[in-house]
Amino acid sequence: MKAQKETTPPTKVKLMSGDDYRESLRKYNPKVFVDGRQVASVVDEPAFRPGINALAFTYDYALQPELEPIALATQSNRNRVVSRMLHVNESSGDLLNKLEAVRVLCQETGCAQRYLAHDALNGVAQAVARIDDAKGTTKHRDRFNAYLAHAQDEDLSIGVAMTDAKGDRSKKPHQQANPDTYVHIVEKNGKGIVISGTKAIVTGGPYMHELLVMPGRDMGVEDKIFAVCCAVRVDDPGITIVSRPAGRPGEKLEHGDALFSRKYGQSTAVVMFDRVFVPWDRVFYAGDWEHSNVLTYSYATHHRHSCIAARAGFGDLLIGAGALMCEANGLNPGSKSNLREQMVELIKITEGFFACGVSASVYATQDQYSGSFMPDPVYSNIGKLLLATQIYDMHRIAHEVSGGLIVALPGPDEDHNPATAAKLSEVLQANPDIPYDKRIQTARFIEDLTASYQGGWYSVISLHGGGSPAAMKQEIWRNYPVGSKVELVERLLERGVLHDENRPITKNRQPGRCCDTGCTKPGQPMMIPLKKV
């Protein structure tokens, strides 16, 4: 009888805690500006504290035993258990668990930010594999795999520097009057490359360890010097980060402390590169313009898939807060149909676009070059399009079920004013079982999420984060099998029309699909509740 081959249990990388992450930032000395002044220490800067808190939570949650199934993943080629935020997907189950992980993170933080690294690493993995296949080499993949191992073993936070400043939007990179509106290669030598240019909208830029520099669009041969993908430390010489504050730290607000965004927030930054040297072992490709579209397309699909989970987490906050506000107002959605309809609408919106993320995971395909798994692009883009356009409805519904109190409250100083506080607590209490201060706290929480500077910010990043709605519509049309639907109708009409590859509306076709092991085989993978500890 043939002996069964023994498998070595995977080893777990040394994961950081939130405090470890904060302390690790002291090892970096990036050149950072915020509010017109240079920052001496990022980790000690109050303007960045809510963003750092959000990143720290991504580390602490990964140490909770009950969350390990979604927070961690096994990178099989290294037999290492790593943070899911740094994992290259190996199955549709990985994509489902990533969705759950991002949703949990964003329930707590609003936007966890660190998941962008996951999306970028998966996109780069697909791009370098495609380049090596075309060239008959392995060097691009080897460099990336070495960097991936470094990022996983150090448990790094990696920012994504993809969106260029762009300059004149009607012109391509090589046509710009100022080439620094796009990051580009200014020199190549035996040791590496030198890059200059500007990346805009870099999420969490000041408090990341490293940045992945990636092209933000498809390139032509004339744009060859702009087709560059590499990794840099945030404090590499020549890098300047000009940032906005994260959340609303330290603001004295009309209606009280920002109960959510004083604790958690997100900074975005413009990152300027001035002759930054990048050694070859951190260059994943340089000048390979023919394959720049692979990375932009792959990253966009992965990121839109993640955005679905992120906004579902934000939707969970609105659903919970809306229900609390109804209760505090003395009303029960179960018996008040006008409130119930609005709450169900909010649930429908949230779970509707999240269901697209689940479908994109289930219908994932394995990339033929890298072997990694890619979420279905149609469902990913539909889910992102739904959340991008319905975020405003989510805010409106939260306002409708909450009433006007969320923006009509007296300022917080009145809570402690002996001349007014007692009377206000009497007349502004609604449900006798809910104390006045609890009602007011919930109202201010909803204001912070939906009717504040931060609320407007959530709307804009939901609309434009991961690309504009127009870009998503283009991808849906480009990938959707309209041709299969056309040929279905023509068959039913008995037209006998033969398929024509040059016919625009029938180019995209797709056969039906089934799970790879058969739909009735017992023991199919399924989502199960996490254990409570």
List the defining traits of the structure above.
single chain, 533 residues, alpha+beta, 6-stranded mixed beta sheet, 4-stranded mixed beta sheet, 15 helices, 15 strands, globular
Describe this structure in words.
By secondary structure, this protein is α+β, with helices and mostly antiparallel strands. It has 15 helices and 15 strands. The protein has helices at residues 18-24, 49-61, 68-71, 92-109, 115-135, 139-154, 292-328, 337-362, 377-402, 405-408, 421-427, 436-450, 453-464, 469-479, 482-492; strands at 11-12, 31-34, 37-38, 72-75, 80-83, 158-161, 184-188, 192-203, 210-213, 228-233, 239-243, 268-279, 283-286, 365-366, 373-374. The strands form 4 sheets. A 6-stranded mixed sheet has the order 3-2-11-12-8-7, with no helix packed on it. Strands 6-9-10-13 form a 4-stranded mixed sheet. A 3-stranded mixed sheet has the order 1-5-4. A hairpin with a 2-residue loop joins strand 2 (31-34) and strand 3 (37-38). Helix 4 (92-109) crosses helix 7, helix 7 (292-328) runs antiparallel to helix 8 and helix 9 packs antiparallel against helix 13. The longest helix has 37 residues, at 292-328. The protein is globular. The two termini are 43 Å apart. The relative contact order is 0.11.
Concise summary:
By secondary structure, the protein is α+β, with helices and mostly antiparallel strands. 43% of the residues lie in helices and 14% in strands.
